[in-house]
Design a protein that fits this description.
Elements: H1 13-26, H2 30-40, H3 46-53, H4 59-98, H5 119-133, E1 137-138, E2 144-146, H6 147-150, H7 161-165, E3 180-182, H8 188-196, E4 201-210, E5 221-231, H9 236-251, E6 258-265, E7 268-281, E8 284-287, E9 292-302, H10 304-309, E10 318-325, H11 326-334, H12 347-353
Parallel strand pairs: 1-4
Antiparallel strand pairs: 2-3, 4-5, 5-10, 6-7, 7-8, 7-9, 9-10
Helix pairs in contact: 1-4, 5-11
This protein binds phenylalanine (PHE).
């Protein structure tokens, strides 16, 4: 038999209740409450010990004392539960108070906000978006080209003056007499595309091109976007419409003024160069007004000799092509006075003229915003 408890030891039950409730109030956290529960209501706790003394009592005394102890047990349990829920709420409130995140605080910019998209890459994406919307797909060719594709098949024979004018970078001549070169324009992609597929063709080919030239408006590497459309009936009206639509979309204006000037390229006949009108107002460039003109592209109807060179029949198919200088339209759209810093990798220039990586150009969302 365990320790017997003399009820007189506690004076009366009221005193015990007062003592227990006082202890309960003093319990400051959930761990202290658990200790209290074990000490009062647990198997060997003080109230349980009282219950165990009942067996040794007279039946009458047992009944009334039993009821009193049960009442005490019930009130202490209730008080324990109430205190538990109070402390639980207080603990939650304390957590909520300390673990707050102020969503109105400015976000510290991460590394993805430090870098910038180069204006050329941005414009590349912009023009791809515009031409894709008109139904053009994107074609590619290598930077290192053959003389055949860069010149011969484009109706520029070795004797042609254009071949000397181009300031070409050549690789050393091989044993078989052939030599490769850095493509001087994106036009060889016309040849590659036509040799690989049959009309109808509707492609653009953005890419790097190279010429040995360096001053305020020329760098030895620059970018062009070639366009080529071939089918059985497309004509110069389509070419003109396409370029006008492109310029309006690219410069994000309702109206542009373009001048189609007769010119000469060996691979087109007739050939034209296109100038676009603009005004410089302070630092700002405005399209479609003013008295300044900038040449931005060459174009024309694909020469029959070029169609023949790729195995097409010029009696059955025809088409047009254009080549736009990407740096030209970039400096014009974004108001850059000098071409050379484009390739100087100066972070200050990039921070000023570059674009945030997540601002992907789209016709629906805005090209340059
Ligand atoms: N390839 C020409 C150049 O680099 C541009 C051009 C392309 C002209 C297509 C007409 C047609 O100057």
């Amino acid at each position: 038999m365990g320790k017997t408890i003399d009820t007189a030891e506690y004076g009366d039950l009221e005193a015990l209740e007062t003592a227990l409730l006082g202890e309960l109030d003093a319990a400051g956290d959930l761990a202290a409450l658990e200790d209290f529960r074990v000490g009062a209501l647990g198997k060997k706790g003080r109230i349980s010990a009282l219950m165990k003394t009942l067996g040794q009592m007279e039946p009458d005394a047992r009944k009334s004392f039993g009821q009193s102890v049960n009442g005490l047990k019930q009130r202490v349990s209730d008080a324990l539960e109430a205190r538990k829920s109070d402390l639980g709420e207080a603990a939650l409130a304390a957590r909520l108070a300390t673990e707050t995140a102020d969503v109105t605080l400015p976000v510290r910019p991460g590394p993805e906000m430090m870098g910038r998209i180069h204006p050329i890459s941005q414009v590349w994406d912009e023009l791809t978006e515009i031409f894709a919307d008109m139904g053009f797909s994107v074609a590619e060719g290598p930077d290192i080209e053959t003389e055949e594709k860069n010149f011969d098949k484009l109706n520029i024979p070795a004797s042609h003056p254009a071949r000397q004018e181009m300031d070409t970078f050549y690789f050393p001549t091989k044993e078989d007499g052939s030599r490769k070169l850095l493509r001087t324009h994106t036009s060889p992609v016309q040849i590659r595309t036509m040799e690989a597929q049959q009309p109808p063709i509707r492609i653009i080919a953005p890419g790097r091109v190279y010429r040995s030239d360096y001053d305020q408006t020329h760098t030895p590497m620059f970018h062009q976007v070639e366009g080529l459309v071939i089918d059985d009936s497309t004509h110069m009206g389509h070419l003109k419409w396409c370029l006008e639509e492109f310029c309006k979309a690219f410069f994000e204006v309702d109206k542009v003024k373009m001048k189609f000037r007769a010119s000469h390229f060996p691979f087109t006949e007739p050939s034209m160069e296109v100038d676009i009108q603009y005004a410089e107002v302070g630092n700002e460039v405005r399209m479609g007004e003013g008295d300044k003109w900038m040449e931005i592209l060459g174009c024309g109807m694909v020469h029959p000799n070029v169609l023949r060179a790729v195995g097409y029949d010029p009696e059955k198919v025809q088409g047009w092509a254009f080549g736009v200088g990407i740096e030209r339209i970039t400096t014009l759209k974004y108001g850059m006075p000098d071409l050379r810093p484009m390739f100087a990798s100066d972070m200050r220039w990039l921070k000023h003229y570059g674009f945030l990586p997540f601002d992907v150009p789209s016709l629906a969302g805005g090209l340059s915003s």
